């Protein structure tokens, strides 16, 4: 089984955030790989990864980074694959610096960007991208989306059962 999604983080300190993407992809049975690479500390390894990812069968890259958050953009500059950036909270600016760094890419080098610490949404977006060309993944995604609505319906039924003296 070859990975379809590559999850990259600037350091293992990002693991608590990025683990949410891993759990989602695992539940959805989408093969993935995980690596720590730093745009600043291991630039040659980042370049090698980005240049070879498509040839290894990777379809989407999720890259989490904090502070200067160069990693998603550096990867996007060197691959034709879609890159989803996850800004990670951790600096004195609570991740806003990372978010702006990932959002403000020059024309021609897009990085889809999710919310600060939004690794699960990055995995959901990766699944949607893969679903465009994979009927099995598309079916699983449709079931997942349907389940979201059912959770809210269930919650509303439970809320209706809560009794208060002045509840109308």
General description of the model:
- It is a single chain.
- By secondary structure, this protein is α/β, with parallel strands linked by helices.
- 45% of the residues lie in helices and 15% in strands.
- A five-stranded parallel beta sheet has the order 2-1-3-4-5, sandwiched between helices.
- Helix 3 links the parallel strand 3 and strand 4.
- Helix 1 runs parallel beside helix 5.
- The radius of gyration is 18 Å and the shape is globular.
- The mean pLDDT is 95.
Tell me the layout of helices and strands.
Elements: E1 5-9, H1 15-27, E2 32-36, H2 43-52, E3 60-66, H3 71-76, E4 83-88, H4 96-103, E5 112-113, H5 119-131, H6 135-160
Parallel strand pairs: 1-2, 1-3, 3-4, 4-5
Helix pairs in contact: 1-5, 5-6
Order of H and E elements: EHEHEHEHEHH
Beta content = 5-15%
Secondary structure: number of strands = 5
C-alpha end-to-end distance = 56 Å
Uncertain segments are none
Radius of gyration: 18 Å
Biggest beta sheet attributes: 5 strands, parallel
Shape: globular
Average residue-wise pLDDT = 95
User: What's the total helix number?
Assistant: 6
Structural class: alpha/beta
Describe the strand arrangement of the main beta sheet, using strand numbers: 2-1-3-4-5
The share of residues in helices is 40-55%
């Amino acid at each position: 089984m070859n990975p379809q999604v590559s999850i990259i983080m600037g350091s293992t300190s990002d693991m608590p955030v990025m683990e949410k993407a891993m759990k989602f992809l695992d539940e959805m049975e989408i093969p993935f790989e995980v690596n720590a690479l730093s745009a600043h500390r291991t630039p040659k390894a980042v370049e090698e990864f980005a240049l070879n990812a498509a040839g290894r069968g990777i379809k989407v890259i999720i890259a989490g980074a904090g502070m200067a958050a160069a990693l998603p953009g550096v990867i996007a500059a060197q691959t034709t694959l879609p890159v989803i950036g996850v800004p990670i909270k951790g600096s004195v600016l609570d991740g806003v610096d990372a978010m702006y760094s990932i959002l403000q890419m020059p024309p021609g080098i897009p990085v889809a960007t999710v919310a600060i610490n939004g690794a699960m949404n990055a995995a959901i977006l990766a699944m949607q991208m893969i679903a465009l060309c994979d009927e099995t993944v598309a079916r699983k995604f449709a079931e997942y989306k349907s389940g979201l609505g059912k959770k809210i319906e269930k919650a509303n039924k439970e809320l209706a059962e809560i009794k208060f003296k002045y509840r109308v």
